[in-house]
Specification:
single chain; mainly beta; 9-stranded mixed beta sheet; 1 helix; globular
């Protein structure tokens, strides 16, 4: 009986210790998970002027002109559950440029984009259920496509893709 109780406790508590980061959004008083998406990268060749090769340019984008999850207001509440070695300040909100077939980061390295960190001067931050944070922007977000991203993540793959959580803010 003692072995069964120990096994049960390990089965219940084990996922909590190694749980991966997750981001949720409040829509109509319900919490909906934002699916993690991997950006795609396209390398545009640089110019060659008199045998001098200029630097190639990378474009990071998400396929599809709109995110599958829409916010129900211009002040969406985002629930962020960081890993045990991460802090809320390591997360940021980035607005994407919308194209016909895809959504694109404005600049190639993630850090060069204009972003809003999840800090008290930009968000109303409250504790969420479990070990998480409920973050509501103090100013309404303009209509558009957004991603929540962990800024200190290591790029995925050879092209340097990022794992992001996308959502849309629509006009009323």
């Amino acid at each position: 009986m003692k072995k069964i109780a120990t096994f049960f406790l390990l089965a219940v508590l084990w996922p909590l210790k190694g749980a991966s980061q997750s981001v949720w959004i409040q829509v109509a008083d319900n919490s909906v998970p934002l699916k993690a998406e991997q950006t795609q990268t396209e390398t545009k060749p640089g110019w060659k002027i008199v045998d001098i090769k200029m630097k190639d340019r990378q474009i990071h984008y998400l396929w599809g002109s709109r995110a599958t999850q829409m916010a129900d207001s211009s002040n969406p509440t985002l629930l962020i559950y960081p890993n045990e070695k991460e802090t809320l300040a390591d997360y940021a909100l980035i607005r994407l440029r919308r194209r016909k077939q895809y959504r694109q980061l404005m600049k190639s390295p993630l850090e060069r984009n204009e972003f809003i960190r999840f800090l008290p001067e930009h968000f109303e931050i409250r504790p969420a259920a479990g070990i998480g944070f409920a973050c509501t922007p103090l100013k309404p977000l303009p209509v558009g496509e957004y991603i929540v991203v962990f800024l200190n993540q290591k790029p995925v793959g050879d092209a340097g893709d990022y794992m992001v959580h996308a959502f849309s803010v629509r006009g009323l």
